[in-house]
Amino acid sequence: MTILNINDLALKLVAKDFSGDHKPNNAGPTKTSRALAIIHLAAHDAYAKVTGKLNPQLETLPHPPKGISNDEATGNAALVSAGICAAQQLYPDFVQFISTETAQLNVGVDSGALNYGKQVAVAWLNARKNDNSDLPDLDSNYSLEPGRHRPDPVSPNQMTLGRTWGLVKPFVLCNVVTDAPLCKQPDLDSKEYALAFDEVIECGKSDITQRNDDFRRKAVIGIFWGYDGANLLGTPPRLYNQVVLEIPEFKALPNSGKIKLLTAINVAMADAGIAAWHWKYVYDFWRPVVGIREAEAGWGPSPGQDSDGNALPAEGDGNILRGKKGDPFWLPLGAPKSNPITKPVNNFTPNFPAYPSGHATFGSACFEVAAALLCKTPEEIFVNFVSDEFNGKTTDNTGAVRPRYEVTFTLREAIEENKSSRIYLGVHWIFDATGGEIVGKAIAHKVVDAFK
Hints:
Number of helices: 15
Number of strands: 4
Distance between the termini: 25 Å
Order of helices and strands: HHHHHEEHHHHHHHHEEHH
Number of domains: 2
Helix content: 40-55%
Strand content: under 5%
CATH architecture of the largest domain: Orthogonal Bundle
Radius of gyration: 23 Å
Shape: elongated
Largest sheet: 2 strands, antiparallel
Oligomer: single chain
CATH superfamily of the largest domain: Vanadium-containing Chloroperoxidase, domain 2
CATH topology of the largest domain: Vanadium-containing Chloroperoxidase, domain 2
């Protein structure tokens, strides 16, 4: 029984939470990342207090009972007990599943260690009780102004998710604005926006898989890094945990090193969700499916509304702005609606603003922390990995089984492909991706300092 048992349980719960017609206990990548952080922190701190081998992250923890051993076995017993207790509270719909999955983990273990683990879990749950994570997270407060986030036209009744998540208390960051700053997205009449427009209108279009090998390769990258709340897959924080688990240097760590690293990456992703969603609703920027369809004059929802102001260049005037015309019929390849219960179904654009990309923020924060705690750069770490999107079992939105695809990449390549994947799906602009990486890196620095 180790942290790997708790991590495995947590990732199974994320997948089950998004399975079938179940209403998730922790909807969206934001709440998922918070739940994963609390489970790992409870496990980490129970082990830390018992063994003294790690620094606890919560200051207000009870002391282990007198007479309890401080050896590795006792520390692991408290760790597992804490992780299970936290998981039961955060995923109440799956208490029976948790009980079945963990039935053998605590057989023959000192009851004092088990009880102490539960106390640590309760302490962490209480510490996060009033962190604003229970604020209403769905609304239809859309603006009709050019550049503002509006529903995916494929899902016109779509509500926007997570407007209040930026108010959640961070785990490590003191202040999102100062600790994870982000500049405003490019103006609609800027060259930077024009270049992003020209890229996504070609690279993210719905027919990308029907074109040449380069476009099909980009489509594979887009889907490979998906995990967009799909049935049996869950959300991106689960994917990034899976990648880290396959790092050879991680596998070679001692138990205490594995505990620290897995806890740190999940804390980083929890703060990444808070920071990314804060900035998303500060700027409230539209997704490509809206921006491209409404790009030309007269196509907006309000009478007399102008276009995005980024006109095509007049012939020979040297004014290089958008090279592509807007298209009122344009649709993206879309976030993959994998393993649909009823089929076929449409792929989709996620129901929250574009800037910055959550994928880019989560992935950058996670992989930068992992590399730093392994005392390497992302370029030096190689991973051999099979995404659940291409595991030979998962189906696409029509019900066709996707083949198995195994690939080797560095963590730097993972950061780059993960953030670019969203452009290839047509659900993000390139500056969303670079903005997310900026925020993710800032968070990673803070988390690495906290776990030294």
